[in-house]
Amino acid sequence: MRPVTYMCSDVDNFVSDELYRHLWLIRREVEAGTADPETVERWEELRETITTIVESLRAAILAAKPQDRAKAMRRWIQAFVDDRWPQATLH
Fold this sequence. Notes:
The protein is mainly alpha-helical. Helix content is 78%, strand content 0%. It is built from four helices and no strands. The protein has helices at residues 8-15, 18-32, 37-63, 69-89. α3 runs antiparallel to α4 (69-89). It starts with 7 loop residues before the first helix and ends with a helix.
């Protein structure tokens, strides 16, 4: 599996985001062994969910011809949002 790469501007946006900073601190606590058991359990659930999403998106992109990969990615994201967003947000 190839690592996900980000553009510098993406990293700058992440670092300035309050949610990202909070998640980063939780990750550090989990890795250091100082997080409470419930936080560790929730962190693992989140990690597994994100891994599943990324692997599914990567498979959809790689299944498309190189010239069609941007469209494949947009289609996958739209399908994910159509399927999951209303359920997750109760909208």
